[in-house]
């Protein structure tokens, strides 16, 4: 390479990262329903009874504990996703901006489109088939060996689901200078910041530490891939961007966002789908004998428990939504966890049911912000991990001697999942 990379941290075109600016949203208008009985503790433990009550009685309430209006019904979420002029993704005072920087996820088009174009085809089906499917198979072999070594009773999230998703993402992104455990730590601490509605200073301190570590690691890999391009995401970004519309600060923020979602989505999808199949023996048998497919099991799993449970939007003007008049500047929590259990769309919505009438779920968002990593998650989980786990660990099931734990509402999944099998 003879040209100078525009993204080296000390280069002239490298742009300083913007400072976080707090934002005080306008007070709810008179007549707004205030759901002051909703607590973050209840949402974290089990949000579904709360969301069911809100969908039925007040589908767009103001929730003081979260400092925002919740959008709980499927139709209203669809409206928000497809009207960015009224419901902007560029939220002021965003916790994600504070935790990860100003990524494309907090931008609207045309700025969002410019950023997203830098990902090219790296995360799409053709690249997955050509490059990443073999990576997923290699990761499976590595972490399935860990399960066998520890034996029946092993804790599954920390010994397989988390590191499997992290190692896959590490190799797709191209962080040769990091480990699976680095990726897990970065992801979890920055996600904790994104969901830090309690404003815990210790949570912010851990998120900032990871923020700085990712910057350092990324800057090293940018220098490496400028001289040695390959098929990874980092390499693709720096060789398809010119440093004018997409800055170093943009790249850092976009990749931090991808580290967050790129681990927790497949990790939590694996475990919650397994929980669904454990609880429905007939459906599990149908998947194992080929009557149903693993892709069907995946789509119903992320419908049943959306790994990314809530994402923010902000109104640009006064507007009525779900019977509530929202002032301009109102902060919204678009609750995919709730919309995916809207009984007007999904019959018997609380049940994991492969036989339900097919309806598009909202687990990967919608509109221009439909998750760029959706194909990657589907392949890791439905093409590789689940089929091989259930084939190679006969009688795979929860360990009845230990308690499994599911938690979260901004992000939701299993945090403790002991499993056993017929050894």
TrEMBL record:
<keyword id="KW-0408">Iron</keyword>
<dbReference type="Pfam" id="PF00067">
    <property type="entry name" value="p450"/>
</dbReference>
<dbReference type="InterPro" id="IPR001128">
    <property type="entry name" value="Cyt_P450"/>
</dbReference>
<protein>
    <submittedName>
        <fullName>Cytochrome P450</fullName>
    </submittedName>
</protein>
<dbReference type="InterPro" id="IPR002397">
    <property type="entry name" value="Cyt_P450_B"/>
</dbReference>
<keyword id="KW-0479">Metal-binding</keyword>
<comment type="similarity">
    <text>Belongs to the cytochrome P450 family.</text>
</comment>
<keyword id="KW-0503">Monooxygenase</keyword>
<dbReference type="InterPro" id="IPR017972">
    <property type="entry name" value="Cyt_P450_CS"/>
</dbReference>
<keyword id="KW-0349">Heme</keyword>
<keyword id="KW-0560">Oxidoreductase</keyword>
<dbReference type="InterPro" id="IPR036396">
    <property type="entry name" value="Cyt_P450_sf"/>
</dbReference>
């Amino acid at each position: 390479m003879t040209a100078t990379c525009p993204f080296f941290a000390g280069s002239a075109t490298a742009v300083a990262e913007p400072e976080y600016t707090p934002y005080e949203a306008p007070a709810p208008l008179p007549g707004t329903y205030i759901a002051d009985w909703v607590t973050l503790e209840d949402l974290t433990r089990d949000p579904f009874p709360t969301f069911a009550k809100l969908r039925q009685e007040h589908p767009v309430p103001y929730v003081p504990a979260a400092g925002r209006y919740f959008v709980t019904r499927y139709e209203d979420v669809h409206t928000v996703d497809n009207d960015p002029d009224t419901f902007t993704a560029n939220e002021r005072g965003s916790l994600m901006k504070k935790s990860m920087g100003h990524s494309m996820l907090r931008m609207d088009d045309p700025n969002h489109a410019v950023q997203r174009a830098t990902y090219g085809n790296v995360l799409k089906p053709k690249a997955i088939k050509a490059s990443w499917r073999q990576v997923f198979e290699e990761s499976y072999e590595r972490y399935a060996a860990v399960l066998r070594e520890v034996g029946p009773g092993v804790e599954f999230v920390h010994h397989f689901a988390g590191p499997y998703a992290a190692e896959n993402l590490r190799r797709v992104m191209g962080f040769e200078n990091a480990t699976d455990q680095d990726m897990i730590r970065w992801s979890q601490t920055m996600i904790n910041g994104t969901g830090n509605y309690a404003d815990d200073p210790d949570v912010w301190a851990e998120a900032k530490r990871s923020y700085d570590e990712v910057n350092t690691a990324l800057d090293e890999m940018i220098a490496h891939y400028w001289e040695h391009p390959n098929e990874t995401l980092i390499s693709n970004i720096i060789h398809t961007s010119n440093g004018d519309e997409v800055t170093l600060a943009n790249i850092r923020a976009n990749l931090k966002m991808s580290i967050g979602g790129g681990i927790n989505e497949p990790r939590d999808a694996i475990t919650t789908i397994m929980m669904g199949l454990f609880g429905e023996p007939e459906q599990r048998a149908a998947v194992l004998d080929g009557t149903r497919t693993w892709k069907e099991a995946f789509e119903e799993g992320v419908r049943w428990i959306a790994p990314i449970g809530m994402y923010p939007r902000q109104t640009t003007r006064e507007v009525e939504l779900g019977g509530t008049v929202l002032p301009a500047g109102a902060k919204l929590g678009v609750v995919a966890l709730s919309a995916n259990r809207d009984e007007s769309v999904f019959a018997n919505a609380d049940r994991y049911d492969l036989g339900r009438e097919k309806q598009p779920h909202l687990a990967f968002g919608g509109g221009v912000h439909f998750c760029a990593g959706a194909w990657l998650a589907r392949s890791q989980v439905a093409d590789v991990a689940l089929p091989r786990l259930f084939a190679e660990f006969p009688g795979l099931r929860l360990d009845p001697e230990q308690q499994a734990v599911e938690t979260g509402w901004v992000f939701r999944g299993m945090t403790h999942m002991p499993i056993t099998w017929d050894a």
